[in-house]
Amino acid sequence: MRSIFAVPKNIGEDTFTKKIIDYQDQYLFLTENNQLHSYVDLKQLKTGDKEYSNLHIDQIVSNAVSIDKLGVFKSEQTLSLSFIFKALGEPIVLVKDKNNEIIGYLRREDMLACMFREETRNINILRMLLASIPMGLFVVDEDCKIVNYNESGLEMIRSTEDLVMGKDARNIFHEEHINEIFATGKTILNQIRITDKMAVLVDYSPIETTSGSVDGAIIIIQDLPAVEKMSMEIENVKNLNNDMNAILSTIYDELVVIDRTGEILRHSENYNFDFWDSELNELVGKNIFDMEEKGNISPSITKLVLERKQKVSRVQEGKNGKKVLAVGNPIFNEAGEMQRVVVASRDITENTKLKTELKQTKEMTKKYKEELNRLKNKTDESPHEIIYCSSKMKQIVNQIEKVARFSSTVLIQGESGVGKEMIAREIHCKSDRFNKPFLTLNCGSIPENLLESELFGYTKGAFTGANEKGKKGYFEQADGGVLFLDEIGDMPLSLQVKLLRVLQEGEVVPIGSVTATTVDVQIIAATNKDLNDMVEKGTFREDLFYRIHVIPIHVPPLNERSEDIPLLAYHTLQKLNQRYNKKCYFSPDALTLLESYSWPGNIRELQNFVERLFVTTEDNVISAASVDQILSLVSKNKTKPVISEVIPLQKAKEDVENQLIRLAMEKYGTTIKAAEALNISQSAVSRKYHKLLHTNE
């Protein structure tokens, strides 16, 4: 027990300074009318190493705390659990004698230390409570020895009492951190400790005396796997939230989530622009019922759902007269209480549908225009820019960037029309040879007897009909640059031998000459054939195959990168617009149809198809109906089913459904209008029509 040192609240400044000049204890008490009134923690007021004598009485009085909040321990009193918890809540406890007079006070830490020495029922309960704390707890004395712990702590460090009690804590936890808190008195948090036996997160806190010195420490640990599990759970919640936002952003209809009080919580990215007075994101946090009272919407479907506690469908009308079909769905918690209302709405006015379609067209046009400008700025040095947005073509472009730094032989493989020559030109453009010749020779379009002279050249009088001055071959003409050998799989075996020599020796011998000419040419070959299969059949030399197969590049067909189709179509259309000074553009449904077609002729077929649309269309907008009409002509096998015998009913239904969808698309041009005519959803028309196109290819 400590003695109480008290001064009157109205004491003079000089008298106060004299009384406190030699005072060393932490707590000072104040009296009022000769009665103990309040106390103050001088340590909290003291700054740095300054003495208490620098404190002023006004400062003491303004920070004083009433003693009414303190617990009172009476002589011969039996400790109760409620008194223990009250004592834990305040820094000191007053002590009274048998006559109910205050005779001193106990600090909280002094009292707890005494409690732990007493073997009473309440103290055992307190110890049990401390032992039940889920975090590990270790108490260290001034000699860094562990003097107390709880069972959770032992389990987390995978140890036993005999290996911990009385042992140096520095041999178990971070030695440098324990030394630091004894030296500085500062708390150290969130330190990871991993050994063969444990993986824990550790906090180090000093235990200080009244004078401010450190005479012990408390080490609190958490099991790292448990912390990691909590972190993973938080990450899972974030991922779920991201997934939900992604789903909301892709839904065509407007979705609004409202709580049971009517407050708007969140909404989808797509919403009915003309229905609300302002942007929907500005209404988050506002009450839907207030909006109904102001006449902004009528009736509120949320109120109906809350009243009926079931799904409700209604036509709602906005202040500006716009109408939407709204479907409200109640969301219940595990207790069966309604927590949320999710309202899905779709604008049922023709004007809004047309505006939405126009907006989509403008956004898509803007997107493709920006992408083309980006590509144009990126490839100003080359008129043969590669148009793409797919990940597969992105990989090829990245590969081109790497290959262009070297002069290795490149073999470009892919179906006819995928743009193999454009890939070759891009390599040449980005290489150190860009200011040297780029020559192209189609090995399958020149007769065998002429191909040799074209490749290697000839001297004067080499053969009948030869130029009297002779002629340089493609290898010599391309010296220092790039020679693109297209359709190399069609090269005769007799010439494959001579080509192999050029690749090996870097020399060519013109027809009619015996003198070799050194050439520096990078060979880029291309083919739409399976050279491996040709090697096995003996129609292509194996040694030549390995010579040209140094850097293979496979260009995927257009049907494997359908996301590139709208961009390529738009690019082709823009070039035609510039050439003929027109302003044609695709409708969204038209681009969707183009993207759904397989394009067996790849880019070449797509470009020809777009030019045909450009020439035959009468309006500036190229509609889905125009695309479908020409696609129907291209696909000659697209005939309407004629039922001439008994067939399964399901098959007959499918045939009729296909005819109706095709007729609706030919008549109305858009999936939205076709869906209205057929009385089914727009998404169903789009899905079935795309499936129909793929089936008829």
Automatic annotation (TrEMBL):
**Biological process GO annotation list?**
regulation of DNA-templated transcription
The UniProt entry, under PROSITE patterns, shows: PAC (PS50113), PAS (PS50112), SIGMA54_INTERACT_1 (PS00675), SIGMA54_INTERACT_3 (PS00688), SIGMA54_INTERACT_4 (PS50045)
Q: What's one GO MF term for it?
A: ATP binding
Pfam families found in the cross-reference section: AAA_lid_14, PAS_9, Sigma54_activat
Does Transmembrane helix count among this protein's keywords?
no
Q: Does the keyword Methyltransferase apply?
A: no
Return the protein name: PAS domain-containing protein
Instruction: Supply the SMART domains for this chain.
Output: AAA, PAS
